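I'll show a sample.
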Amino acid sequence: MANEIKKTDFIQSLEKGLNVITAFDHEHAAMTLTQVAKKLDLTRANARRILLTLEHLGFVSSVDGKLFSLTPKVLCLGYSYMSSLSYRELAQPYMEALAAEVNESCSMSVLDDREIVYVARVQTKRIMTIALGVGTRLPVQAASMGKVLLAGLEQEALQNLIKALNFEAFTSHTLIDPKAFIAHIQEVRQQGWALSDQELEIGVRSVACPLKDKDGKTLAALNISGHASRVTKEEMLDKFLPALQNTVAKIEQALKNKV
C-alpha cells in the first residue's frame, strides 16, 4: 500500500501525467484529447498541456494533434524496474528447465499493493494455454503466488493489506471470509507453499513457492500453472510442487553464490 505523505510534498501534476500514461490500454490504444479528459476527469486544458508535454518528451505521439497514443519510449519506464530485478535474469534458465520438465507454464511475480505483477513467464506450447504475460496483474488473494507473497509480509503489514482487500468471489472456490483467509495465509506461511484451485478462474490450478534472499526475505514468487482438465489437484501437489521446490532451492543457491 502507498505510504502517506504531506500535501506539500505531493506533486499533483506528476500524478496527473502518470495517470494519463496508464489511461492507455488494450481497449484505449488511441484517444482524443476529449476522451483522455473524460476518462480521467480532467479539464480539456489540463489534459491538453499534459499530452503536449508527454509528446514533447517522446512518450506520446499524435495524428494531426488530435488522436494520441503511447510510443515505445514508455517501455523504458518499466524496463528500468525490470532490469533492477537481478534475480529475474538469473532465474530464467531454471524456470525454462522446470517448464520443460513438467510441460506446464512457469511464472514469477512480485507484490504491488493489492495485486501481483508478472515479471517473468515461460509458457509451454499447447493448444489450450492461459493467456498471461509479463506485466499481467492479478488480484493477490485468489492467486497462488499472491498467497505466498502475502505470507512473506510482516504480520502488521499483512493485516493492513487484508483490511484493504475487496474479497470478491471470482468463482465458487474463492475464499471470501477475511478471518478464514488470514488463517489460510498463516498455513501458507508455515508450509512454505500455496495452492490456488480454480479460485481465480474455473479450470485453472496453480501451485506457488516464495523465492527468498540469503536473509530469508521474500523477493518474489514462482508458480506452475495448468488447466484443471489435464492437471489434477493431487498431481499438482505430488508431482509439480516437489519440482517447483527443487527449482526454487537451485535459484536461491545461485543467488547466494552470486553474492
Summary: Residues 175 and 181 are 6 Å apart (CA to CA).
